[in-house]
Design a protein that fits this description.
Blueprint (H helix, E strand, L loop, with lengths): L1 E7 L10 H7 L3 E5 L8 H11 L4 E6 L1 H12 L4 E7 L8 H15 L3 H9 L11 H27 L5 H4 L6 E6 L7 H10 L4 E5 L6 H4 L1 H12 L2
Helix pairs in contact: 1-10, 2-3, 4-6, 5-6
Length: 231
């Protein structure tokens, strides 16, 4: 078997986010999708990933999972042989986003987490011109299964996360930067920044996809990941 691959899902997502990648990439290697909702600190979440991960592994993450992957790499660069950063953001949380998150946490305390997901978050997950009710339904199911405590922990971890641009400037392992062409949550400029920080990285833009190319265009995303794993 080839070196294991650890995948970190986005906020309010689980292994279903990577269903196609698990099925395809798992034929040649162990693919491990970590749970990332047990703590409200990005640093502690990274420590937990490292406790459970193999000694050396390829690492990929999407959205919050990509942010966490950067922290994992910061803590243990010698254990990560490859890095895939998908639809993510190397910067600390902007103040206006923190303000919105405060409202979300207040609403969650009133039992409105699923309303937030349905009304505010999930509509921005897919390409704005290509409706995908199937993906929106799946995202609601994942949010329902993960629950309020997960939403709160992940919101706080994202709110208080550090800027990782210095971390990325030190990356020398084979790296993939991947995004859906119409990512409304982590737009192109975030990925351009990562490419500037990691000049040797492959940069792949998935057409006809938004924030969740693993679900919107699974075959194209898996092809890009497979090419990265062969570098």
């Amino acid at each position: 078997m080839k070196e294991p691959l650890v995948l970190l899902p986005g906020m309010m997502c689980d292994e279903r986010l990577f269903a196609h990648q698990l099925a395809s990439l798992g034929e040649e290697r162990e693919v491990i999708v970590m749970k990332i909702h047990g703590h409200d600190s990005m640093s502690i979440l990274a420590e937990e990933v490292l406790k459970k991960a193999p000694e050396r592994f390829s690492l990929g993450g999407l959205s919050m999972g990509g942010i966490l992957a950067m922290e994992v790499f910061r803590q243990a660069p010698d254990r990560v042989s490859r890095l895939a950063l998908m639809d993510t953001n190397p910067r600390a949380e902007a103040e206006e986003v923190k303000d919105g998150r405060k409202v979300h946490l207040e609403r969650t305390a009133k039992g409105e987490m699923l309303d937030i997901m349905r009304e505010i978050m999930i509509p921005k997950y897919v390409h704005r011109d290509i409706p995908r009710p199937d993906i929106e339904k799946l995202c609601m199911e994942m949010a329902r299964d993960l629950g309020d405590e997960c939403f709160i922990n992940q919101s706080l971890a994202l709110r208080d996360r550090p800027d990782q641009q210095d971390t990325l400037s030190k990356v020398t392992v084979p790296t993939l930067i991947l995004m859906g062409e119409d990512d409304q949550l982590c737009p192109r400029d975030r990925h351009d920044t990562m490419k500037l920080l990691i000049p040797h990285a492959d940069f792949v833009v998935i057409p006809f996809a938004g924030h969740l190319p693993t679900l919107e265009k699974p075959e194209a995303t898996t092809r890009a990941l497979n090419a990265w794993l062969k570098r």
